[in-house]
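The instructor's notes for this session suggest beginning with a concrete chain rather than abstract definitions. Hand out the sequence below and ask the class to guess, before any prediction is shown, which regions might be ordered.
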Amino acid sequence: MIKPFGTHYLSPTKEFRRFSVLLSIHDTPDTSQHTIGKNAHLSSSMVNNYIKQFKGEGLITVSGNTNRTQRYHLTREGHQALRESLLSYSTEIVQLFGSVKQEIAKILGGYYEEGIRTIALFGAAETAEVAHAAIKKTQLVMIGVVDSDPQKQGKPFNGLLIQPPEELKRIQPDAVVITSFARQREIEKSIRQYISKKTKVKKLSELT
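After discussion, reveal the predicted structure:
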């Protein structure tokens, strides 16, 4: 399930709620309204209203006599509506990604103006993917990516292998960019033991 919930800036719209319910029905048709509501982060009463709407619009069929036995299936029109919703949602996410990438590229461009030429990323999660995409829009060169999680070490990351933080001793970049927004002080403290005094530590959370 796609769940952009628990965020401060992405509030689900009516269109997204409809999308979530359709997607839940598609993924788990043999389920209850309660489970659909749990998947879509909606109350059972709201799910019931959407079920009635979808049935009236010819997007779903309903089988069973009680809430416990009822099952929901997308019709051909329902599958088409789901595809269109997924396409629209994906388009908006791609546009949002592009905007974020552009803003991060501005931050990274400021690093270049400071004299930084080579960087290593600390943290190989989703934010690092965005940072890497932004780096390609600058003159900076990414020469390494490190992560303290042993499960990630040794795995590929955009042409490089994720290394343990100790690898910073060998590569000695001009700057290490912390891509994580959590535990930044703790991470910076751990980084310092592996880099020279000339190497800068930067955080994506810093706008300048």
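Then share the key points. The chain is about 45% helix and 15% strand. The helical segments are 14-27, 33-40, 44-57, 76-113, 126-135, 168-171, 184-192.
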